[in-house]
Amino acid sequence: MKAPPDIIDRVRLIRTPGIGPVTYRQLLLRFGSAEAALAAIPDLARRGGGKAPAIFPKSAADREFAAVEKAGARYLILGQGLYPRALAELESAPPLLTVIGRLALLEQPMVAIVGARNASAAACRFARGLAHDLSREGVAVVSGLARGIDSAALDGSIDSGTIAVIAGGVDVYYPPENEVRQKDVAERGLLVAEMPPGTEPRARHFPYRNRIIAGLAVGTVVIEAAPQSGSLITARLAAEAGREVMAVPGSPIDPRAQGCNQLIREGATLIQSAADVIECIGNLHGKLASPPNASEFRPGPERNEGEPEVLALVEALLGPSPAPVDEIVRLSGASPGAVQLALLELDLAGRLDRHAGNKVSLR
Question: Looking at the structure, do residues 117 and 202 belong to the same domain, yes or no?
């Protein structure tokens, strides 16, 4: 199948060095299409005082599209109908997802189950039973396909509804011993990846994967997690996204339970059964599953003639410490559109860092 030009342009845009999900979204909001955004990048970077990034080649985007097809996968595109609506609410939502399997699962309420890789046998048994009971009630279970709790949750829900989010490409099996599980998910559940096919997972990819897990789900259940673990990062991301955080208590003398017990002390809902989870998430699924905004990527206004000095003003307000964009708009006195354009120029010039919570700093 010949690749649609719009998809190729979107692949080129998000794979261009220095363009992350937030910058991608800002470019499409301003220019309306990936093609127009690609054409605008050199001039934006020049106005920002830097050198334009090397645009991802069309030939490489064509090869990626072919690899996705060869793997039996397809793209889900941010701002279009099949893209998960709850995930689209995240500021850092992935512009492209690669998926294999049952897309109908994305229409069900989703709950993430995460926890320790070196989980106890009792915790794995509980995770497997909880996932089984939730999936039988029409709740799709989201996990990360890691060892321990993730694998147990997958095993419990595979018959009725499991979604596995992986850190590498859809055609890369990690950890290697989960190859059979990953193939099983692709056939009977839904496999989700942000990275292009052929990508071997690296340490930096796992926090990105965790935000997808938290973003897909209306709530996250943590079962055994040590302090500073990736599972607690997922729980924090879920809380920041306004989703429910739930935890299964454990023995105070087991280090693997310290993270869960701390979450409960901080306000997470204590979970002992699937009924507890269903009661906790309540009607949150309906609130998140609103129709996507059809006007999301219409072109924004250009900078007004009277605002040529906005770039210098914004640059003067920025420093090495992250500052909220809303505060930059307020202090500058310029229009939000003009400030966003100035930030885009600095970003594409390699002079801006974007942070969680819609904050920016000067590099």
Answer: yes
